[in-house]
Amino acid sequence: MAKTKQEKLDAKAEKQYYKTHKRTFRYTPGDIVFSVLNYSFFIIFTVSCIFPFYYLFINTISDNDLVSRGAINFIPRGLNLENYANIFKAGEVGQAFLVSIGRTLIGTALMVAASALVGYLVTKQNMWHRKFWYRFLVITMYFNAGTIPWYLNMSMLGLTNNFMAYIIPGIVAPYNIILVKTYVESIPAELEESAFMDGASYWKIFKAIILPLCKPILATIAIFGAVGHWNSFTDSLILMQGAPELYTLQHRLYLYLNTTTNLGAVLDGAGSSVAESVVKSAMNAKVIKYTISMVSTIPILLVYPFMQRYFEKGIMLGAVKG
Questions:
Q1: CB 286 within 8 A of CB 260
Q2: pLDDT tens profile 159-214
Q3: In whole angstroms, what is the distance from residue 240 CA to residue 233 CA?
């Protein structure tokens, strides 16, 4: 947004002030020590957060034999980009990737749409039994019957070995609805009143006024939903036992991790010839584990740069207030 003439003059005056008085600002020894410690702490903290992803990445693009021997620690050696191509040549991994993408896109879109609509509706005082429905919605956040009743319920609804088991249970998210409701309540009521006086219906007001103004909070809950769908594997593990083609990428990664552990257990009591084949398999499993870990991490990390400008504003304005 272009600055006004007054804002430009103020900025110029502020810059001139600091330029004129810059010599009056002096760092004390305590300030210097604090700055050094502060920057050192955050640099170490940042590196400790980034290094695991960097370690995984350099191991996926290095020579597989060196990776299997644990020789890659800080710098990639023997550039090898075939791991990523080979992962997607495996039908089960490619299929799992498509399932994860599908459930994330569809599930997040429906969740955001439902949260926006329901969050707007429960702000209307003339909604039929508004308090009852809102409290009925909120109370579901505090009760969970457990895994077995949940599985039996999903089974009776025909949602085992069914892709819709990933989508339907997550459409109504009470916490996200509360965030949207609180955000909508922060929008000046005069906007809706003027549109209502002009003859606009609730639906038209929702589409033309509320949705455009709710972009920050909708982007925020979209991140929540996308991360939840992408990282979830429990529902795939429990509900998709008879449909391997519906396994998610996280479920596949879990299976590969278990395979590596089982191979290590077999190795302890194996003979030399058997041990050699097991070691080779373990090597492959290690490389596959690293590569799938990167494939399952990169897509969701790419979401944040596009949503970051909305995230802080959305979560602050949509926070639950009292």
A1: yes
A2: 888 999 999 988 988 888 988 888 888 888 888 888 888 787 888 888 888 888 88
A3: 10
Pair 181, 117: CB distance under 8 Å? no
Question: Model confidence over 220-252: pLDDT tens digits?
Answer: 888 888 888 988 888 898 988 888 888 988 888
Domain ranges of the chain: 26-80, 90-249+298-317
C-alpha R_g of the chain:
27
Residue whose structure tokens are 């036992």: 241
* Cβ–Cβ < 8 Å for 319, 178: no
Arithmetic mean of pLDDT, 39-55:
89
CB atoms near residue 236 (< 10 Å): 24
CA neighbor of 249 nearest in space, from 112, 123, 41, 88: 88
Backbone dihedral region of 153: left (phi > 0), alpha (psi from -120 to 50 degrees) or beta? alpha
Measure the CA–CA gap between 261 and 255, rounded to whole angstroms: 10
Return d(Cα 258, Cα 265) in angstroms, integer. 11
DSSP, collapsed to helix, strand or coil, labels residue 280 as: helix
> What's the pTM?
0.71
* CA distances (Å), origin 293, targets 80, 234, 249, 252, 315: 17, 17, 9, 10, 29
Domain 90-249+298-317 coded CATH 1.10.3720.10 = yes
On whether the CB atoms of residues 121 and 133 are closer than 8 A, the answer is no
Token pair 């505090």: residue = 142
